[in-house]
Every structure is written in structure tokens, then in C-alpha cells.
Amino acid sequence: MKNRIISVFLAVIVAAGLIPLVAVTASAEGSVIDVTSEAEFAAALDMDTPVAAINIISDFTVNSDCTVKFDPEHIDNYKDVVVTINEGVTMTVAEGGSIGSAWFTFEGDWETPPTPNGRVVNNGTVIVGDRGWIDGDFDENNGTVIIKDGAVAMCANENNGTVIVDGGLYMTTQGGKSVNNGVIRVGEKATMISRFGTPIINEEGGTIELYGEFMCGVLEFDGGVMLFENHGEVTGSGYVTLDYMGPEDAPMPDMDAMIERMMAQLGQTSRFENWEDIDIFVQYEVTSYEKIKSLSKDRTVAGEHVEGNMDLIFFIMGNVVVPEGESINVMSLFVVAEDASLTVNGGAELEGGIRNRSRIEVMPGGVLATTMGGDIVNEGKLTLHEGAVLKSQMGGSVVNLEGAEMTLDGTFYCGCIGGESGDGCWFENFGNASGKGEMILYEAAPDFLPVNDMEQLVKYTAGKFGEEKNVPEIKAGEPEDEIKWMPGDINGDDNVDNKDIVTLFRYVSGGDVSVNEYALDTNGDGAVDNKDIVTLFRYVSGGNAELSDKPYIPEK
Asked: What is the pLDDT of residues 8-30, one digit of tens each?
């Protein structure tokens, strides 16, 4: 009889033993089951008769696979099931746990796979812990979903509540669309992803607070498809990465046009007009310096040249070396992936935003610097060798995160500013920072944000190294002048003439003369000798000779 409540005793045998009893209400559409524990939840997902609804009515933690399995024996029993976390109830999905409908576990005939219609609806609170999952069909969130670091959750097809992505992944699944009518907050270490052809649509009245990364899928057909629409509000200081998800052998869409579309979605009319704008990147995987140089050269966005090329993000997937004499001064973001490395050789310079998840080495004579608004964030190991330079400038900080290791045996020029809230410097240390070099604090904006008490700031900065005894000498000062030189201008008078030939001859002969060291290696072979005199003589005389444009960095 319809809606008549009956008592049912389940005797379901599983590997762990007998499943506890669960409360079941029968209806014409199938059983309605109330569960109060993980064991009861697992039993409710393994019924031999149709199930219409499973209601989570008490707090508990899921540590196992509690998903609707699409196997031939049970799929028809669960095709219309609605799993609901009731209002006021908190479900925690811990390591090894998962809830939802794992369509990828189907074990039947893939020629005629089932069409699942089951739903997961959250009216309470779901906490997804480290290595926990919300799988496949997460249909509706009317409560709160909290995704912790190391957790993965599929986007709600419809979010009317609040989703807080603390440090994990929040991503779309195959098919349909994810519509936000509520609030999605993506933390600094978290990522939101649209993929598998499924867009994220922020409706009018919806809010996305982006402080981490939004990796937005881009497809190649119809001139390019971007998996995001915004009709509501997007705020925050994070960034968007446009990630091409088409097949490798297919032509990529016009990524500049995709950037322009994303700008329009976010209400941006020109590139980098406001500091509050969310940065937009195009993502590339690279394994060589040559690839970085070719992609970052002469970038044009939305019809205008962009100073610094901030629209590029490079995922370094191999062992990349910036060669001697080369420099990249861009506002791009470089991510050094796990098991990869980045080396800045002597005489080379790299200026950009950096996320180091593996290893970075700055060799003697090399320079690594932040860029405008782009931080150097170390999650792995960063080594500044003796004679190398690290610089925080233009509002970009150097940040050493918890568990990371930073060795400062060279010179770290750390920018500092004053303000209404007090003095501060562009350096934070939450990990292990040590070294036998020096850290020089300088006023980065003395004209409009002067430091009030540099001595006190030196003491405060020293405290950021904790109890570590092997730390750099910290003092106030000014950065060394940037490399300024002209090929062949040995005496530094801004001309290349016979005076430079005489000066170079005297230098090579061991004479006591003043020279611009960067200009000494006129033929670019890495040494300073008689060959350089001959090259310079031929150049000044109008002969068939070219001067090297690589600065000479003498060994210290």
C-alpha cells in the first residue's frame, strides 16, 4: 500500500560482516531510507529493490566508497534515487571516503550504458577532508560545502548555498552545466576548474570570490568555446588560467580572443588598468628556455601591446636553464612543477611571478626578481648561491611557505614601504630560511610611502627567521645599480672608439685602469684576452666584426 510505513529487517552480508539495521519507508517509487551512520549508508546503497530516497539524518564521517555503483545488478534500483543531507546535519568525507554517483565504475555493456538520473542534494553541511571526494552527480547544494586542502569535489549542478574551497579542487564533471546562484569562495591555495565541456555559469545574484585560481577550459570548435559565463559578481585578488583542453593534433583557437572574452565576462575594458582586476593568463607547458622566450616575445592582447606580458603562465615541466647573458623581464607567472627545476645562470636575469613547487637555483652572477604584483612563492627548495641576487620589488613579495627551504648565501634586496598601518617589507617566512649571505632592506617607494623607522624594520625582519642561527646579515641599504653598459664601451663614456681599444689593451696587459666589466668580453667567448682587443679594433676600424651583446660577468 502506497506510503504505508513498514518495518524491514535487512540481512545484507558484506565483507566486514552484518550491516546494522536501517529505517525504511516503502513507497510505489521505491524505498525511502533514513541513515545515521556510514555502515547504514553503505547498506542503503546495496539494496536489491528500488530505492527512491536516502536521507542522511545524523552527523557521521564517511571513510569508504559510498557511491551509487552503476553495475548491471543494482543500477535500475537507483536510477531515480535522491540522496539528501538533511538541514542541520554535518557529513564529513574523510580520507578514503567518497559520496555521489561514480558513473565511471559501470561494469555492464558500454555499448548501451545506463542513463543515471540519481541526485545528491545537500541541505546541511558537507565537509570534504584531505583525500576525500564528492563524486559524479552532485546535483544541488542548498547548504554549505567546505572543501579542505587535498580534497576533490565535483561542482554542484545548482548551487544555491555556499561553497568554500579552502585548498582543494572544485571542478565540473562530464555533461550538463554548473549554475551558481549562491556564493563560491576559492581560497588562495585552492583551484576551481571547468572541464569536460561543462561550463560554470555565475547567474545574476550569484557571487564568486576568487582568491586562488580558476582554471577555465577552452575548446577549439566554432572558433573557440570558453567554459564560463558571468551574469553576477566576481571579486577577489586571484587569477584565471585559460586552459586549452582540445586534442593535441587540433588547431588551437585564438587565445588572444579568448582572453578578450574573459575580460568581457569579468567587466574589464583594458588590460591591467586597475590593481583590483583579476589577472587572466593563458597556460603553456614548457621544458626549455627557448620555448619560454619564443612564447613571451612580442605578445599582443586585445589589439594592444601589453608591457610585461602578464597574460602568460608557464608550467615548467622539465629542467629549464636561463643561459648566461639572457634575460626575461616579464609580468608572467612561472610555475615550477614537481620533479622539474629552474636554474638562473650567472649573467642571466629572470623577473616574473613564480610558484616554486620543486627546485630553483640562482647561480653566482644571476638575478631573480619579482615583478609588478607578481610574488615569488617558494613551496619547495630555493637556493641563492654566493654572488647571486634575489630582489623583491614593484609590490611583489618573496614568500617562503611552511615546509619549504630557502638558502640565502647571496644578496637579497628586500623592498620596504611605510603607510598608515606601519612599515612593512616584501618578505614572509613560514618555513626554513637560512644562509650566510646578506639581506639588504631598501625603501621601495620613498617619495609617497616612506619608511618611518628602518632600524625597527630591520629588527622585525630578523624575527621572521625564528630561532635559526645560520641567517643572513640583515641591514638597511640600497640595491646595486642595474647593469648598464654598451657593447665595446670599455671606459664607460657612452662612446665606442679608439679610447676603448687603448683601455682594453691596458686592462688585458694588467694595467691599473677603470673599466665597465660588463663590456670587456667583446667577442662573447666568456674570456677576456687579446682576442677581444682584435675584435674591438676591427669593429672600430669598420672591419667585418660584431660586438657581443652578452654582458661579461667576472668570477668573484
From this structure: 222 232 333 344 455 666 555 78
CA distance 156 to 137: 8
Three-class DSSP category at 351: strand
Pick the last residue of a domain from 261, 291, 317: 317
Q: Specify whether 459 is located in the same domain as 495.
A: no
Task: Report which of residues 420 and 383 the model is more confident about.
Answer: 383
Nearest residue to 63 via CA among 129, 117, 3: 129
CA distance 12 to 17: 9
CA 553 to chain centre: 34
> Are both 1 and 53 inside the same structural domain?
yes
Domain extent, residue 504, equals 483-556
Residues 523 and 543: their CA atoms lie apart, in Å, by 14
CA–CA dist 556, 550 (Å, integer):
18
Model pLDDT, residue 306 = 43
141 and 165 inside one domain: no
Q: What are the DSSP calls for 449-502, one per residue?
A: S--S-HHHHHHHHHGGGTT-SS--EEEE--PPPPP---TT-SSSSS--SHHHHH
Q: Which residues contact 463 (CB under 8 A, 6 or more apart)?
A: none
* Residue 418, all three cell numbers: 611605510
Residue 371 per-residue DSSP state = B
Q: Which residues pair with 353 in a beta bridge?
A: 333
CB 341 within 8 A of CB 299: no
pLDDT tens string 30-69: 899 999 999 999 999 888 889 999 999 999 999 998 887 6
CA distance 480 to 67: 61
**DSSP per residue over 149-180, as a string?**
TT-EEEPPSEE-SEEEESSSEEE--SSS-EEE
Residues constituting the chain: 556
Over the stretch 426-463, which tens digit does the pLDDT of each residue have? 999 999 999 999 999 999 988 889 999 999 999 999 99
- Which three cell numbers, joined as nine digits, stand for 338? 614537481
End-to-end CA distance of the chain: 92
Residues 125, 90: contact at Cβ < 8 Å?
Answer: yes
3-class DSSP state of 261: helix
Distance CA 441, CA 414 (A): 5
The model's pTM is 0.66
Chain-centre distance for alpha carbon 381: 17
